[in-house]
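Hey,

Quick one before I head out. I ran the complex with zinc ion overnight. Inputs first:
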Amino acid sequence: MVARFDPAKARVFIIDSYHFDFQREQIDVEMYVRTAAEARANCIRLGAYNHYGYAIYPSKVAPVAPGCNLDYVREFVEVGKKYGVSIIGYINAGMDAVGPAARGEFLALDEQGNPRRWGAVGDDPDWSTYFMCPNNPGWLDYVRQITDEVMERGVVGTYFDETIEPRCFCPICRQKYRERFGKEMPPSSDWNQAEFWEDPVQASEYLTFRCETLLEFRQALVKHTHQNNPDALAMINCGGFLQTYCGGVGTSPEETVEFIPDMDGLLTEAQIRCSGQPIWHASENALFADHLPFRPWVHVEYGAGGWPFSSVSQAELIVKTGMLVARGARPALFNYHLRNPRGMEGVKKAFSLVADNEDILENTKSVAEVAVVFHRPTARLYGRDKITERYEWCFRGMHHALASCHTCFDVLYPRIPELDKLKNFRLIVLPSVAILSDAEQEAIRHYVREGGNLLVTGEIATHDSLGNLIGNSGLSDVLGCHITGRAEHTITIASGGFRPYAHCYAHVLDRHPALSGFEVGDYIPLSAWLLDVELTTGKSLASTIRPPDHPPMVGLGPEVSFPSILLNQFGEGRVVYLPSLPGRVYFEYELPDVLMLISSIVRWLLDGKPTVQLEAPCTVEMSLRWQEHKERYILHLIDWSGSLKTLGDSGPITVSGIVRLPERFQVADVGTLDGKPVSWNQRDDGSIQFEVPVNKWQALVFQTG
Ligand SMILES: [Zn+2]
């Protein structure tokens, strides 16, 4: 019987089997485990069976990795016991290159009946691996046998990777599709192509088929793990919530959890370095953590961006660890150089901050007054072949802007839930939520009528449930306007190879507290994609400047009467509508005027009294969490300003602010994550004023008497 390991308190080192070259070196298992333990990791996810179909133990069913002459899974488990490090067995469940699949029994086939290949180095078939069919019972049986072998070696659980649906067109899949929909599979399966969406009903059915296939496959693996050992953990790599992180199209983390309620955990990716993304992306998948029944694992770092035998700075590791943990996720360090003492110093600092503070991190829930809606049906069926540009960038830019202007916000997800949940928030942000069911529209209408506030951008309830354009918004009464048209406005300058100029602006007409910081006559950058609107009950604060219609001259274009910033009072609530894509502009360009616009509107809609008001650069992110069983609030502050590129400690900044906790909560003491003193006092209105040093990641713990 293996001991139950708590994945909600995991600090994970991920060691893929690729990290070892068994033919060149003797693997010093003790060194690996000891290094992990010394850096305060309590779990190693070990690559037991990899993408090429090799095991790193003497398997009876799979080939053993070249040069591997030891039972490394058992070895890691045994040494792990000595150091208090639990081992989770990683099993690639979707690919094979050298096992039985190489003989073609379980291969996934493309539309033409050819094997789907992955991971080829050039055209060398020796360095290719192949997708397997998740609908093939033989492949499932094979993965079950591997699972039994890995579990027999005493791991605390299984972790299944590559549980994907590789757009398989094998006879088994074709037959299953016929039985499910009474028709043949569609000729094209690539949803990134416009042709795929020509028949939206067919596209939607095909996506349903993929989703169901995956969920059933994942469920079978979780079930098998628990049948083998009811105490073992069964975890799945769910990619991510966003397509950007390989998620959301086949199926999504939330659909997986709903379908397999007894799974024990999942991992989502955060490929900052290896996909060249800026640092703020680290928290993107963790944003959704509170919507899962367990603490998801998220990558802190991914092999130093393609150099797994190098390291990143300790500042970067602390920032990214803090970002994940502050959102309720758990840190997992992927294929990192464990033999580099310079790099491990930072890991130890980051993981120690977590390990030494588990009591303030456990069982906490986000406290937020603002919610930004992520809408899965809109992402899939409105986003279609351009999910990232049409939908995700709008959402992600809004997340980035809300974080940069120090807002306590949650993601509302996957569908706008029952009315009770909306009421928990003072402000709901809806970026490009093009598809809303009648029930969802009615819930929003009711929320605003009763005093809730909205910030709406871009399309809103303008498309039907299959993503086809209707035209006007189903919520036009709430917006105070009709949507009468939409178009992209750009001009291309003949020289220089620049991107087309958007050249669209909001021209400020009126001084208003929602536009604090802007003057009458100011120009605020707008996206090239604009919606035409006609006012009904709404009020316009800005007209629209569009690009000149006679390039190549690049003067300020003509002013048109369509409003670009609208206010509406609806019942007791207030609505600000921006019929453009400010989130997308901020995602792509981080223009300060756009941040100032969003910041000013949010502040106005919160009556100038947010729960937490920070005096800090926009590179300080925060989250406020409530720990019910200890009755305390925890305010996380993460500073990613300054250089994250030097290995040494780059030093703290000072952050001050005001926290408005509920009146019944009497603060008796304020502690910190790193034990550094904080100066604080309670003001006459009951709010707490504080000043604290933040060295990349800090947390304030507000204790009651
Ligand atoms: Zn198949």
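Residues 108, 133, 135-136, 168, 170, 172-173 surround zinc ion (CB under 6 Å).

Talk tomorrow,
K.
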